[in-house]
Design a protein that fits this description.
594 residues, mainly beta, Immunoglobulin-like, 18-stranded mixed β-sheet, eight-stranded mixed β-sheet, 1 helix, Ig-like_dom_sf, transmembrane helix
């Protein structure tokens, strides 16, 4: 028997297939071998059969010949199968030159798993030819359980498939609706890898395959196999039935801002009573578990029993804590753990307000996590992004300095701080600044507000009962603010401009095209006098003095003088009356003595 394991064009030609009759005589049959190239052959398929059930294998043959079905041994030689377990069913296709044969193997066991070939057998006088045209890999699969999970459209879903007995074996997840033809696996172990719309991690230490759906869609619903390859031809899996719900409440998105070193409380609402899961996205947008003494949890049920509200507190916030968090509900099954992420929280860090006068310099200090020492950093007015950059934005790399006309960036990797200095400040420099680190996308993690006080003050002197209109500079993204305070910094809290005045006599009118808004004050009173700050990031100092009118002062003076004279008269009369009475008493007393 001569077995060509893989025919090539070079194998074509004339062969002698002979026997040595004696030392000097031989006889042979001449064999003329031609090698055809056809896109349909050889055909390769993979079939999966559950343990103990029946496997059906279909083969397409190019001509009407006897069917040959064989199984590769350990040496990759295709050996004939002679077993009562194999039955054959044949039928012609619509085209007479092709034939479809189905081979069934009943009561499949581990011994039946492996590589099969089927093809056409031709007999001649002295030779038998078997052309193997279809290669079938038969894998034996064992279903160990069934689990059901529900996720929310637009939210995230983490699935942990546990295979503790097969820690180092390759693991996968596939969808049954496409016959599990597309098996998603990380390709590498102990490292997150993207595969289409999901990310996968094969944890060989715990024997767990983690599958993360970053954003669930309706098309993700269906039945999956979450399995492990025990050997080349045997697998175990848990069936996963995934349904995707669409609910206006989930996923929920929010933004929280907190000053460095302070504490932030994050509240999450869950659709059901399950174990709380709280995680933080890493640089690859994978939501990783948080295990820190800085995080504490406080839970309480809402009025509706099917909902639960949990508050997560992060104390002593540092630059490492900035980023995107998710919280959701965790469900455990025999072999699977499901984490449905329902609330997305963007945690931004803030630094104290920077207040400078027009023409001065400002220094913006950006601490960063030491893991980003080698990454480019940016200081941007407005968020740092490739499509929305302010001309002032600049980037600096480790231990280098970037200079423009008025901006200097310096990165101190030893201290894990980069600094931006802006000289000769103008009104255009005022605003919100972001510190960012460039990864695959830019990570905006820390911001501050720069307030520029204009050198030109506005001094107003008015009288009680007057009206006054004050124009304030206004940038598009700023809030309109008119604040009464001794210092400009007192007019901003947590980056938000405060309107400390709550009086019906004060009104605003916006002239956005002119970049100003007007504050109108009616019926001025003396207590309205004081220092005001007009604008938000661009601020003008307004000194308002409200006096009484001259006629009011004359009347007041007359009343005062009149009252003063009346008081003096009363005092004089009193004194005169007292003396007269005293004299009378003295005379009367003297008379009695006499």
């Amino acid at each position: 028997m001569v077995f060509f394991r893989e025919l090539k064009a070079a194998d074509a030609g004339t062969y002698r297939c002979g026997v040595k009759e004696s030392d000097y005589t031989e006889s042979f049959t001449e064999l003329q071998l031609s090698v055809k190239h056809d896109a349909k052959y050889p055909k390769r398929v993979t079939e999966y059969a559950p343990f103990g059930e029946k496997a059906n294998i279909s083969c397409q043959l190019p001509e009407k010949h006897e069917v040959h079905f064989c199984k590769e041994d350990n040496n990759h030689i295709c050996q004939n199968i002679s077993s009562s377990k194999v039955t054959e069913m044949s039928g012609l296709s619509e085209r007479n030159e092709e034939r479809v044969v189905t081979v069934s193997i009943i009561n499949v066991s581990v011994r039946d798993a492996g590589v099969y070939w089927c093809g056409a057998e031709t007999r001649d006088t002295y030779l038998t030819f078997i052309s193997l045209t279809t290669k079938i890999q038969l894998n034996l699969i064992t279903k160990v359980g069934v689990s059901r999970v529900t996720g929310y459209g637009g939210g995230g879903l983490m699935i942990k498939c546990e295979h503790p007995q097969y820690k180092t074996k390759p693991k996968y997840i596939c969808k049954e609706s496409d016959g599990c033809s597309e098996r998603k696996n990380p390709g590498v172990q102990n490292e997150w890898m993207e595969n289409g719309d999901v990310s996968l991690y094969d944890d060989t230490r715990a024997g767990v395959l983690m599958v993360f759906f970053r954003e669930l869609k309706a098309a993700d619903a269906g039945t999956y196999r979450c399995g492990v390859k025990e050997s080349d031809y045997t697998e175990r899996f848990t069936e996963l039935q995934l349904s995707v719900k669409h609910d206006a409440k989930y996923p929920n998105s929010m933004t929280e801002s907190v000053y460095l070193g302070e504490e932030v409380n994050i509240s999450c609402q869950f659709p059901e009573e399950h174990k709380v899961h709280f995680c933080k996205e890493d640089d690859n947008h994978i939501c990783q578990n948080i295990s820190s003494s800085k995080v504490t949890e406080m839970s309480g049920s809402s009025e509706r029993n099917e909902e639960r509200v949990v508050t997560v507190s992060i104390s002593n916030v540092s630059v490492r804590d900035a980023g995107v968090y998710w919280c959701g509900a965790e469900t455990r099954d025999t072999y699977l753990t499901f984490i449905s992420l329902t609330t997305k929280i963007q945690l931004n860090l803030m630094m104290a307000l920077i207040v400078r006068h027009e023409g001065e310099s400002a220094e913006i200090i950006c601490p960063y996590d030491s893991i980003y020492k080698s990454k480019p950093k940016s200081l941007c007015k407005g968020k740092c992004s490739t499509r929305d950059r302010n001309p002032l934005s600049e980037t600096v790399r480790e231990e280098k300095e970037t200079k423009t006309d008025r901006l200097i960036l310096k990165d101190n990797v030893t201290a894990s701080v980069f600094t931006g200095s802006i000289t000769a400040l103008t009104a255009e420099d005022a605003g919100k600044y972001w510190c960012a680190v460039t990864l695959e996308t830019e990570l905006n993690y820390l911001h501050t507000h720069l307030m520029v006080i204009m050198n030109e003050e506005l001094n107003l002197t008015k009288y009680e009962g007057d009206d006054v209109s004050i124009q304030c500079k206004h940038q598009d993204e700023d809030q309109k603010s008119f604040c009464k305070a001794h210092e400009a910094s007192m007019c901003v809290k947590d980056g938000v401009s405060l309107e400390t005045i709550r009086d019906d006599r004060f009104s605003f009118s916006d002239e956005a095209s002119a970049g100003v808004f007007t504050v109108n004050i009616t019926d001025l009173r003396e207590e309205d006098s004081g220092i005001y700050w007009c604008g938000a990031h661009v601020t003008t100092k307004v000194i308002l003095e409200v006096n009484k009118r001259a006629s009011d002062r004359i009347i007041t003076s007359c009343i005062f003088v009149t009252l003063l004279l009346m008081g003096a008269s009363v005092l004089l009369l009193y004194k005169l009356g007292y003396i007269k009475t005293r004299d009378t008493v003295i005379l009367h007393t003297q008379a009695q003595i006499d």
